[in-house]
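Hey L., structure's done. Input below.
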Amino acid sequence: MESRWNDDEASNCHGDPLKLRVYTSRLLGLDEDLVMHGGGNTSVKITDTNLFEEEEEILYVKGSGWDLATIEAEGFAPVKMEMLLKMANLESMSDLDMVKYQRMAMTNPAAPNPSVEAILHAIIPFRFVDHTHADAVVTITNTPGGEQKIKEIYGDRVLIIPYVMPGFILASKIFEMTKGLDWSSIDGMILLNHGVFTFHDDAKASYEQMIRLVSEAESYLDEQAPEFLSGEEGKINSLEVAKVRRSVSEVWGQPVLAESDLSEATTAFSGLSSVSEIANRGPITPDHIIRTKQHPVVLENDPEKSINDFAANYRSYFELHADGETLLDQAPRWAIIPGSGSLLFGPSVKHTKIIKDIASHTQRAIYRAEQLGGWQPLPPSDLFEMEYWSLEQAKLKKAGTPKAFQGRVALVTGAASGIGKACVEYLVANGAVVGAMDISPEVEQAFSATEVLPLVADVTNPEQVQQALDAIITRYGGLDMLVSNAGIFPTSAKIAEMIAETWQRSMDINLTSHQQLIQYCVPYLELGFNPAIVIVGSKNVPAPGPGAAAYSVAKAGLTQLSRVAALELGGKGIRVNVVHPNAVYDTAIWTEEVLQARAAYYGLTIEEYKTNNVLQSEVTSKDVARLVTEMLGETFAKITGAQVPIDGGNERVI
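Output:
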């Protein structure tokens, strides 16, 4: 492990201890082998002057909810040292009381809650304190004789702490163990099955001491367990993945995403003959159980049975250890598909990424620990204590209401601009993830949200459509909503003057491609949650105009197709509705020149032309997208086969 310290970067801190604390915290957070997704914590002790011109020692400790990789100065909670040290002397205290009194001791009420390890940071008599969950160290301690291996590596240079729960119990344990200790005689502390602490009055020294200790553990692993996972990328059946996602969501009690990990290392791990046994022993560190549960589900020949068995075993685990706690959902957070890779489950892209990262590190740790004598994490009783920690239970009660489409997956065609682009944005704003498909490569730069998967594909090419669907399933696990929007407005021509290619191109794109898309999507929608299709039609269906036969006939056929689809798919629970926009001018079709020409033709200004409807109101892409989103949601839950105009009131339609 290499030090990331840079003298030039550090000089920008100008010796300010809090700025240095931010700097080295970020250095630690940048390395996933040290901390992941909010793990670890750091602190600095600073003498501040209070309102009464009195000097007092303040511990600035990482606040709850902040990630070391991106932490700012405001991410550190300022807590009075005097109060923390008095708390350390108490014989007992609940963690809920600890959190309450730590907050009462803060000098800034707007700051986040202090880390649950604030008391521990306070009793370490050095200015800077660093704490990580270093993979290498915890991997070694998760083996038979792990404590002895730690002694072999470090000798007497570290204080070894037996595992106890984080929070007041851990602080109290170390407080007792270190009475009379010459802190300068040790380089750090190793908390078995938990992590590493280093400390120094100098920010660089404390940080680099962490790097040195972890590097020694890594060197030990390289010598004793040199083999790494390697192989070929895995392959999955997208329809089978959608079935797994359905089963997990049902056990969870809400729709969730299922991201595939088909990387070489993950596929190699999934192919181990012992994977069912070694993967089910427990996580690297109990901190992870809050996100991953005890272990993954290994999907055997009958994946649905494997998932249901996992849920039943989880209930048994809860009943064995529970003492008044509230039962959490019983769904797995990740699955191993033997020989193929893994699936990561969560209600959002952020959640699945966290699970993916933790699962990847867990697999590597298990594999290396097996070479050291066996993977032996903490027993279920300790894991339960962490998973059902009173502080975690309290968080459940504060959980907010999820967005309407959280955990649901949509596909929008014609997504690079206009109505399609607006639909993608509205769906994401309402919690969905979206496959945004368009023939134009511009779709790849059209969205910045991580909830959008851009897909360059031609809707008239069945092979490209299937590839796009496979990509959506690989990333998100299923399909719940389809917005079939892609279309063109061909060059105006009277029937007698129609070019055959113009007619056929309109039929191919505005009609046939939609039929093929629905055909390809139905098997996935059948496995979706509240599945729905919205077809973007046109005012030209009820009120066609001369010179637009190719467009009007194709859209009329598309509407009839939608009506038949509603009849055929209703029994599968799939709703099919149509929206008929008109005069939506903020699309690629309506350039400034075209608008000026059309307005001049009717003797109107551009503004008058845009609002030339009964309500005298302009209809925008966002207006259409808002309606489409509603049609996909609960408002239209009992409606199928409907056609809804959105045109400001068109006299010919009315």
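The longest strand covers residues 41-49. The radius of gyration is 30 Å.

-- N.
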